[in-house]
From TrEMBL:
Species, as recorded: Streptomyces violaceorubidus
Domain HTH tetR-type: 5-65
Name of this protein: TetR-like C-terminal domain-containing protein
SUPFAM superfamilies for the chain: Homeodomain-like, Tetracyclin repressor-like, C-terminal domain
DNA-binding region as annotated in the record: 28-47
InterPro entries in the cross-refs: Homeodomain-like_sf, HTH_TetR, MT1864/Rv1816-like_C, Tet_transcr_reg_TetR-rel_C_sf
Gene3D superfamilies per the UniProt record, alphabetical: Homeodomain-like, Tetracycline Repressor, domain 2
Any Pfam family hit: TetR_C_33
Alphabetically ordered keywords of this record: DNA-binding, Transcription, Transcription regulation
Length: 189
């Protein structure tokens, strides 16, 4: 029988908070059991194993991230939408480093196929990119360009990897401007 007050949502939220505070690697079933003052076995009523727990954190974080992006891009198109999308992405990644790290783990696609957050992510991202006149397979290529650029920049910034005296925000603004130019001039077959 589940411990009173302990729910899957509470366990996952605590795991996400722990990831932000101490890093995704610190998220273990034992660490959460200590947090809740229960034995490890008590948590297996709510999550199958560590992989399931981290997967659930990834879904939670992905939903939070796309919600912030959706709010930022609402009513915008083209360069303005791209800048809002990029800014929301970067802000979330820097504000929630552990949650953000969870969004980067490889997950079994069959487990996320029916995810509302994943569908919303595709809708928002593809909607923004369609303003540039992109269709498949260019949409997929453009999504990969954006994700790899945003992720790389955020990972380097979070780790203190930018040592030059140039303002990091100014460089970010140039990156977004360069992406806008690339999307406007996308190479088509």
């Amino acid at each position: 029988m589940p411990r009173a007050g302990l729910t899957t949502d509470r366990v996952v939220a605590a795991a996400a908070d722990l990831a932000d505070a101490s890093g995704l690697d610190a998220v273990t079933v034992s660490a959460l059991a200590r947090h809740f003052g229960v034995r490890d076995a008590s948590l297996y009523t709510h999550v199958r194993n560590l992989q399931d727990l981290r997967f659930r954190v990834a879904l939670l974080a992905g939903g939070e991230l796309i919600e912030e992006i959706a709010q930022a891009v609402a009513g915008r198109a083209g360069k303005e939408a791209l800048a809002a999308f990029a800014g929301a992405y970067r802000a979330y990644a820097l504000r929630h480093p552990g949650r953000y790290a969870a969004t980067q783990i490889r997950v079994d696609q069959s487990r996320v196929a029916d995810s509302p957050a994943l569908r919303r992510t595709a809708e928002i991202t593809h909607g923004m990119l369609r303003a540039y006149g992109l269709t498949e397979p260019d949409l997929t290529d453009a999504v990969r360009l954006l994700r790899s650029t945003f992720h790389g920049y955020c990972a380097l910034e979070a780790s203190g990897g930018f040592g030059a005296p140039r303002d990091v925000q100014a460089s970010w603004d140039k990156v977004v401007e360069a992406l806008h130019v690339a999307l406007e001039n996308w190479p088509r077959a």
